[in-house]
Amino acid sequence: MDTSPFSQESDPPDRPPRIRRRRLAAIALASLLVALRVTLIIVNGIANSLFHPSPYPSCGTAAFEPPESREGLCTVYEHSSIVVKNIVDRNSTLHMPEYDARVITWTSVHTRVPNWRTEPKRFPEGHGVLVSLEVEISNPGNEPLQYGPLIARSPVPSYRSHPPAELALPISAGSPGEGLSVVAILNPRGAPGPSIFGQAPILPHSSITSWISFVMSRSESELVGLPRSDLMLSPVDENPNYVGIIRLGRNAPAEVVPSSRV
What we know:
Blueprint: H1 11-51, E1 72-78, E2 81-89, E3 94-95, E4 100-112, E5 127-139, E6 165-169, E7 180-183, E8 206-216, H2 218-221, E9 230-233, E10 242-247, E11 257-258
Parallel strand pairs: 2-10, 4-11
Antiparallel strand pairs: 1-2, 3-4, 4-5, 5-8, 6-7, 6-9, 9-10
């Protein structure tokens, strides 16, 4: 009997394992090629979004910064996505995809903050300020437009997880260079009316004039109307990658109406 490792008698039993090993290797190689191709597609898509985000310029260019502070559409990379910013000055009309908006004036009144103990330095002993902006919203379309959330008339102030409006202020909220963004409050106490939220649909080619309110500290309220203080509005569809911005401190005459204390 031939005892060499390559004898004919030992060859047939070894063949099936070789075939299985070859098949497993082929499957692994094919899977690796598919994974590599998918990775290349994803990386290429991310690179395109980073280096060619849109036909709009970057919001960080000098043209959109003081002293020029031009109006128009620009893009910025925020929270792992590209955000389009539609920026106008205070004396201009903001043209959003579904509506037009312009700021008329704003008021400020002293108010009580019930949960002030969560931020005692910001609201000492519960003292805060309610800042309300009078805004005109126009419907340029041919169908009725429901602007803002449909909210129930309630004596209890509340907030939404996806705020329809925010007020950006030129103040550090923690780290140097960071700004503070205050979310619009629904059903605020002591605010002028009517509120912009919970209104009936705006008829085609018509407009409504209502108010948006924000609760902030006394020092923060004094920054409204200064450079880098902005009213930020969301589209009706709440697209997080698009925001409208009205610069309150750009070409804005002193029209602030200080209301009486409440």
